[in-house]
Design a protein that fits this description.
The chain has 401 residues and is α/β, with parallel strands linked by helices. The protein is built from ten helices and 16 strands. The structure holds zinc ion (2 copies). One zinc ion binds next to loops.
Length: 401
Amino acid sequence: MLSIMTKPDFHITAEQHFDEMVALRRDFHQYPELGFQETRTSGIVAQQLADLGFEVQRGLAKTGVVGLLVGARPGPTILLRFDMDALPVQEETDLPYKSVNPGVMHACGHDGHTAMGLTLAKIMAEQQAQMAGTLKFMFQPAEEGLGGAFAMIADGVLDNPRPDAALAMHIWTPEQVGKVRIVDGPCMASSSVFTLTVQGKGGHGAAPHQAKDPILAAAHIVVALQSIVSRNTNPQDSVVVSIGQFAAGTTFNVIPDRAILKGTVRSYNQALHRQTYRRILEMAQNMATAFSCTATMETVAIVAAVVNAEEPTAVVRQAATLVMGAENIVEHRTMASEDMGYILEEIPGCYFFVGGGNAAKGLTYPHHHPKFDFDERAMIDGVALMAQAVADYVLPVGNSR
Ligand SMILES: [Zn+2]
Ligand SMILES: [Zn+2]
């Protein structure tokens, strides 16, 4: 007797859940909530997880939800992370399920992520009796620059049980639907912001010799900072230094007291990040001195780099080969940032991007754009891919590992 035991075909399973997943996503889209205010969204998440028989924990990082699915037999604990927050953007689409909350929009696709997480929860709940291990679903608030993942770690999301591996994904419109971006090692950059205050001495615009002009000093600083990437950084490494704000003065004929520069640094490693800040400060101080001003700097770390670990990345790549085909795997990293970096500093894991763009359907707007939208079929790919990767860890039947 030949008994063939194989894992379910998760692409077909995900496709069977497509309509309800779309309905969920559109509901979240219509009622978007900003970081740490996701009360409606997290309420739906907690209710659905409880209905599926998950052990549900609420209130981590205020609106975060953790759902545990404990398999019939012992095995590894795998953390699956989904973000729920929207952005302070006024939606400009014509979608029938357009945001009803003025100035708030799901312009990054986290509505899709939440719907995918709940759909995956449903699919895996059906596998509970075969599962050897535990799935820890993490629905986090405030991914968009507010450090929701960090706050959930502080509230114990990585304890009891501590995950052995962590997976997360992002729908990504710069990539076409049907493709997936997976990369070993650094995947997204660490991000920090800085404020440079250039202090001079104000005076009359007609008597500049009696003043110390901070605008002139700050203008030279902006230009000089551009040489950090081109002259101080190893060409093999990636760093971004961008000034996003230059504020000084009040009117035509007054030399102001001070100028304020605000900017951001992105890189894939901490040593390089520190080196870049050393150069920014040296340049700002020396350039300010050259113009008889002074410069001080304040920095705030936003997120760590997202760095993929070898084994989980191999698992995801293998899963992608099975459910999407090797020809649809694209190697690509980005200088954008994600607070999943904090999780991956503690737990080996893999973060990947599911293509969600579709030029033929006009779905080409970048993330955070008021007209942002994605091809909803991307959600099938994402759920199938993550289900397949999870199966590799906790469904030992037919497992080659
Ligand atoms: Zn975003
Ligand atoms: Zn996002």
